[in-house]
Design brief:
By secondary structure, the protein is of the alpha/beta class. The chain is built from 14 helices and 14 strands. It has 2 domains: 99 residues, Nuclear Transport Factor 2, Chain: A; 267 residues, Rossmann fold (3-Layer(aba) Sandwich). Helices cover 35% and strands 22% of the residues.
Length: 438
């Protein structure tokens, strides 16, 4: 079935914090499938918004359900298991169990809790992590700790090389949205790869669970990147300076995606950082990046019908609402693309390129992959134009890397993230050499 939600706001540019009542969404999704299970198609069809009612008639819905029954057998149970913001919509994943197998579904809801899209979720795949061949676990040790204020702490791991003194430390900072300490996406764990790879070369690190994953209720009220990213990054940096055996004057920040975009800001907040690494970091406003992502998905679909073109145009119109740089008459808690207006106004008032250009120290490493469909070479070129002449900056473009920093043969889509591919060994070697360079 064709997906009716065009807002493909890329992974690492989303958040679990949204105003819609999650319990109500889950109940609505479960009720919808209960009606299908009872073959009450008229009542189930009433859950659709007017547009979907036209596109997917009651008779079509009945046929679809019949086809699913033919394939999987009699339905047994349905449970909503996940919900996340998708632009102005909310995507609810429902786990379906049938006599002859399992099939998950995704329901798209609008703010009125009407169903605007229903489609089959990809088949379940077992995400098996693949330890990189450049990681030697005999060369380092790991310790579990916590960072952050009492009562709201975050689990973290300190990775330190064995038999080393005065070693550098790297703090890993996530992109947008909820993320675990390894920045796990599908079968991939970029931060775990990097931590093990760097530790095998004598460089320590700290990685931690992102606050939006553990404490989503903290983000029910208007917030900014300070609460989402900067406060915890600051706590991790402070901790890195106290690690036994580490050189407190040799601490680096590895910022990925949004984390890289905010790394220059972190350098102003902690002036004694030795260096910042901007990995797949947007140089533009997130609005421009999200529009590019949608256009990429549109081109990839090869659907040039007027209906699909209109859907893209409507999506761009909605995305452009996130360009606000000051609230004015807009309420701070107004939701734009799943984030509060206060968040957008704050982030849009920050110019990461200008801030980076103003830094005489620390040293800066900017890296970008050519097979990254989430952040493009356009951003790298902007970084290059602004920073190439600065003595404290090194820039490198890796033609084969994707957004997760693994080598690929093409840009692809998010489906690419389901296969386990380690972070590039070349990249790990380059970062290690750069950190150790005097």
């Amino acid at each position: 079935m064709k997906k009716s939600l065009l807002f493909i706001i890329a992974l690492l540019f989303t958040t679990t914090a949204f105003s819609q009542n999650v319990i109500q969404l889950f109940n609505s999704a479960n009720d919808f499938f209960k009606l299908l299970q009872e073959e009450k198609f008229t009542d189930a069809h009433a859950f659709f918004d007017d547009t979907l009612k036209t596109k997917l008639t009651e008779e079509n819905l009945k046929k679809l359900w019949g086809d699913i029954g033919t394939k999987f057998g009699k339905p047994e149970s349905f449970d909503a298991i996940q919900s996340k913001a998708q632009g102005e919509f909310f995507a609810v994943t429902v786990e379906g169990k049938f006599v002859n197998g399992e099939q998950n579904f995704i329901l798209g809801f609008n703010k009125q809790q009407k169903v605007v899209g229903i489609f089959l979720a990809p088949s379940k795949r077992i995400a098996t992590y693949l330890k990189p061949n450049y990681v030697d676990t005999n060369l380092y040790k790991e310790k579990s700790v916590y960072i952050g204020p009492a009562g709201k702490q975050l689990a973290a791991i300190i990775t330190t090389p064995k038999n080393a003194k005065n070693f550098p430390m790297v703090v890993f900072v996530h992109g947008s949205g909820p993320g675990d300490m390894d920045e796990t996406v599908g079968a991939n764990k970029p931060f775990k790869d990097l931590a093990g790879g760097l530790a095998s070369k004598g460089i320590g690190s700290i990685r931690y669970v992102k606050r939006t994953l553990i404490y989503p209720n903290e983000f029910a009220n208007p917030y900014t990147v300070k609460e989402e990213v900067l406060d915890d990054a600051g706590a991790a940096i402070a901790l890195a300076k106290t690690v036994v055996g580490a050189d407190p004057k040799n601490v680096y920040v590895f910022g990925h995606s949004l984390g890289g975009m905010l790394a220059p800001k972190m350098a102003t907040l902690t002036p004694d950082l030795a260096g910042i690494i901007l990995a797949a970091a947007p140089a533009r406003k997130l609005t421009d990046v999200i529009i590019d992502q949608n256009k990429y998905m549109f081109d990839l679909s090869s659907d040039t019908t007027s209906a699909n073109k209109k859907q893209l145009a409507d999506a761009v119109t909605e995305i452009n609402k996130s360009r606000i740089s000051q609230l004015g008459t807009v309420k701070p808690d107004s939701i734009i693309l799943g984030l509060p207006a206060k968040y957008w106004a704050d982030l849009n008032s920050y110019n990461q390129v200008t801030v980076a250009k103003s830094l005489s120290k620390p040293k800066i490493y900017v890296l970008q992959g050519g097979n990254d469909f989430q952040v493009s070479k356009v951003d790298f070129d902007l970084w290059n134009a602004a920073l190439a002449k600065k003595k404290n900056v090194q820039l490198k473009f890796y033609p084969d890397l994707n957004h997760l920093l693994s080598p690929q043969t093409e840009k692809g889509t998010m489906a690419q993230y389901q296969a386990a591919v380690s972070v590039s060994e070349t990249l790990v070697n380059d970062i290690a050499l750069w950190i150790k360079a005097k």
